[in-house]
Amino acid sequence: MIVAVFNTKAYDRRFLQDANRDQRHQLLFHEPRLNRNTAALASGADAVCVFVNDVLDRATLEALARIGISAVALRCAGFNNVDLAAAEDLGLQVVRVPAYSPYAVAEHTVALILTLNRKTHRAHNRVHEGNFSLEGLLGFDLHGKVVGVIGTGKIGAIFSRIMTGFGCRVLAFDPLVNPDCLAIGVDYVAMEQLLSEADIVSLHCPLTPASRHLIDDRAIASMRQGCMLINTSRGGLIDAPALIRGLKSGKVGYVGLDVYEEEADLFFEDLSNTVIQDDVFARLTTFTNVLITGHQGFFTDSALENIATTTLANLTDLEIRGCCDNAVTTDLVRNR
Ligand code: NAI
Q1: Domains of the chain and CATH, by start
Q2: What is the DSSP letter of 215?
Q3: Where are the alpha helices (DSSP H) in 92-235?
Q4: Cα separation, 4 vs 107, whole angstroms
Q5: How far is the CA of 334 from the centre of ligand 1 (A)?
Q6: Which of 69, 95, 120, 293 has the highest count of CB atoms within 10 angstroms of its CB?
Q7: Which tens digits make up the pLDDT trace of 317-331?
Q8: Whose CA is nearest to atom 36 of ligand 1?
Q9: pTM for the model
């Protein structure tokens, strides 16, 4: 297939070109993100390949269909940026990479927890300046703490296993019970109980209309005083202004974010010479008990290899079989 690959960085090109040695698609790399204004760059291609922050709304999909694109290959697991109903109306097939390294995201979640707790980022800066004071660096033992996991799919289950290894008690909320989690002693409870008992709450569910702003003023009010909140899933799960209110009042004691609702205007680019216009994001960066990374949970060599291999295999499936086991449909969303 001729594939217009949008939103590419040097690392995307490297891993996709390596994986394509076995697949032989024609890859045309484009730096811009895909949206209704850039869709024309895909002229002459059969498929587009996109990432989390490309915008595949109805207008973009209509523009793609008009120039003969028949498939959208997401090089990520989440698909909240695609209007699936529009894709189906237009006969565009959508495929994704359902799992590339759940370990990468689960381990990054643990990195955020350990850094926030033991303040190693602050300690590192202090030591570099010859400041060996321990004031302000007090942490807590993870052993014996209660961790609340919202969403126990692939990533949530691995994260739960790691936290039981630290000697934590794990409470979970998920409409689907994962037998692997039950087997390691995870207790499934109602959301209210999880929020009121957990010392650390970590989000591992997808962003859907039902889960948008799952963490809002009400949820924050029911959390333990000073609890830690971690989000490595999708930014829209948290109402950021409500989170700021929770931080200012001290109700929320620590926040670790790898995702942010309005991240499309910020993440994956070097903006160090510009003024950040997003006042909510800017306020979040002023708290010393907030640690933000720019959507790098997935960013390991194993994950990039798996993403590239599966993305190209998905396109080969569509080309040869006309269908793909990793297709994303509106039925998949309804059944979540
Ligand atoms: P998964 O599909 O294996 O598991 C998601 C789980 O969430 C399922 O068990 C589902 O039943 C549950 N769920 C759905 N709605 C829920 C709700 N309202 N409340 C509680 N649970 C709910 O997904 P996986 O692979 O574990 O990924 C989880 C999320 O992690 C993805 O949706 C994606 O948004 C995010 N992600 C983030 C990455 C990063 O780089 N930071 C990379 C990859 C994924």
Answers
A1: 2-100+301-334 (3.40.50.720), 102-292 (3.40.50.720)
A2: B
A3: 102-118, 120-128, 154-165, 179-183, 191-197, 217-221
A4: 32
A5: 15
A6: 95
A7: 999 999 999 999 998
A8: 233
A9: 0.91
